[in-house]
């Protein structure tokens, strides 16, 4: 019975999530709760568990005002409680030891397995096409971003993902090192107006079974 309740709760979150663009500017979310939501989002899967993401949390009003024109003057940037910039870490291999050391400490793998994995990962990435690495990082950041929005909705907050911003100006304004690639901005806060309901194409129009039939 408990699993049914959890499934229903999850389905409510999935069905009620909307892209919200109108927020209560007087409402704030504590830094601790933002950390909690980010922690839940960071449970998202990633290639080899490398977690190739970093976050910049903009909850200072002056910095949100600075971000506003970079984000094409989307009002939610300044009205929402915070804006989360999700950055892809192109040099995530530098944290491979930390990632797998944590698994060893947790008892999920032996040190011998960890050492073998680290050696293999480093060797593989040294010969890998940089574009392939970037594509994988962007994919993983997409998984993380969706999980963030669902975690926020589960706590009663609203979000909207924003890909429409000037990434070059963002890099310049906030002095982003070459190691990191901006992926998406996500506003989070309390809606002052509900997000517009939307429709989806019938799943039968989107689904092929066992290959594409021409």
Low-confidence stretches: none
- Shape call: globular
Amino-to-carboxy terminus distance: 44 Å
**Count of helix runs:** 9
Q: Count the beta strands.
A: 4
Query: Which band does the percent of strand residues land in?
Result: 5-15%
Structural commentary:
The chain is 48% helix and 14% strand. The chain has helices at 2-16, 31-41, 61-70, 76-79, 96-105, 111-126, 130-154, 167-173, 203-206; strands at residues 53-58, 82-89, 158-162, 180-189. Helix 2 packs across helix 7 (130-154) and helix 5 runs antiparallel to helix 6.
Helix/strand layout:
Elements: H1 2-16, H2 31-41, E1 53-58, H3 61-70, H4 76-79, E2 82-89, H5 96-105, H6 111-126, H7 130-154, E3 158-162, H8 167-173, E4 180-189, H9 203-206
Antiparallel strand pairs: 1-2, 2-4, 3-4
Helix pairs in contact: 2-7, 5-6
Give keywords.
214 residues; alpha+beta; 4-stranded antiparallel beta sheet; 9 helices; 48% helix; 14% strand
Q: Nutshell version of this structure?
A:
The chain has helices at residues 2-16, 31-41, 61-70, 76-79, 96-105, 111-126, 130-154, 167-173, 203-206; strands at residues 53-58, 82-89, 158-162, 180-189. With 214 residues, it is of the alpha+beta class.
């Amino acid at each position: 019975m408990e699993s049914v309740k959890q499934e229903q709760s999850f389905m409510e979150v999935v069905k009620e999530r909307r892209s919200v663009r109108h927020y209560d500017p007087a409402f704030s979310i504590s830094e601790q709760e933002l950390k909690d939501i980010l922690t839940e989002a960071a449970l998202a899967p990633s290639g080899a568990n490398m977690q190739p993401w970093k976050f910049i949390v903009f909850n200072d009003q002056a910095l949100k005002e600075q971000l506003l024109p970079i984000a094409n003057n989307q009002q939610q940037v300044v009205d929402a409680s915070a804006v989360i910039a999700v950055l892809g870490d192109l040099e995530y291999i530098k944290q491979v030891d930390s990632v797998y050391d944590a698994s060893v400490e947790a008892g999920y793998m032996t040190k011998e397995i960890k050492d073998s994995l680290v050696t293999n990962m480093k060797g593989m990435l040294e010969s890998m096409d940089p574009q392939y690495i970037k594509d994988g990082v962007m994919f993983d950041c997409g998984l993380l971003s969706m999980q963030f929005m669902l975690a926020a909705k589960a706590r009663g907050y609203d979000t909207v993902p924003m890909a429409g911003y000037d990434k070059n100006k963002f890099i310049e304004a906030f002095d982003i090192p070459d190691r990191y690639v901006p992926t998406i901005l996500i506003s989070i806060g309390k809606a002052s107006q509900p997000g517009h309901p939307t429709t989806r194409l019938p799943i039968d129009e989107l689904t092929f079974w066992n290959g594409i039939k021409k």
